[in-house]
Give the backbone structure.
Amino acid sequence: MFRHAFTVTGVVACTVTTLLACTAATPAGSRSAAADVQLQTWLYPGSPGDSTCTAQSEYADDRVKDGALNPEYWTIGEDGSVTLETTADGLCNTYSPANVADLKAHSAAQYPTLSGMTTAAVHALVKSKSARTAAVTKVTSLVNDAGLSGVDVDMEDYWSWSTADFANYKTFLRQLATALHTNGKRLQVDAPAMTEDAAFYDYAEVVATGVDDLVIMAYDEEFDTAAGARCLPISPYDWLKKVTTYAQSKVPDPDRLIMGLPSYGYSAPDPCDLNSVTGNIQFSEMKKSPGFSSDPATVESRRDASSGEIRWTSGGVLYDYVDSIAMDRKLAVLKGLGVTKVSVWSLGGGNPWFTD
């Protein structure tokens, strides 16, 4: 995976063969694993009592005081309409003046997310000039009035997009970027993890629309598992390096590239059945899984050498989650490749964070 040598906290020069040992050898009292990296993190809505609603208490420790918080504020409907999610609807991590004030108290920047998770929703929004204009007006008005830093656009289901969808998506981004920049605001766009050129998405073309930050979601590699095999880890080191170096080849300016890392878990049948993967399991729920152990020796015996993730099977089911050590080691991979900006999915449910 690694052609470059890199240093963890300036103590040990690491290569692929010594990554696990050298990360573990970092002495107590040394610099934070995330030193010299600008951090941001996502949080998403939930009903009262949902584990995602602990996100506010988690970022209250100022873990991204010098970085950014990205709450999901808007969703795209199947008809292309944009709905503002608010605390008045009984949802945590959504818009209200109080929520905005709290975000600002604990971060240097705030990029609320416009979320569209289906091809139908994306298609309906971006194909129509009136729908695009309505969305841009709604989103930028709130950002300007609330004094937020900009917008994070997360439109997914990329692999089902047509070439027309991608072209119209770029038109929408260009329109949104222009409107935001007029008022000194910024545009972040979340992009799929890729290792080679594809017809449905092109990093360089997206950035050329005026996007300020391209955020590569470098996780969920388990969904690329071959038939009949055990599900892959969420973000294996080798794959993470390939995704990162490919992204850098398309977006060479490090100030415009943000790499996303995972902080969550999943479960799946063993062997893997991609139709039965339960993803985005928060740590508070993972701890309830059969066979879960917090015993340090057991945890280390389950640590996967290819990803740093904790993996075990129970009752024919594979469990996999990312702990703080795995996060540190994935971050070391990115830092070794010159990455200076990192985003984490996600806060809430006691999901692990980088070690101090």
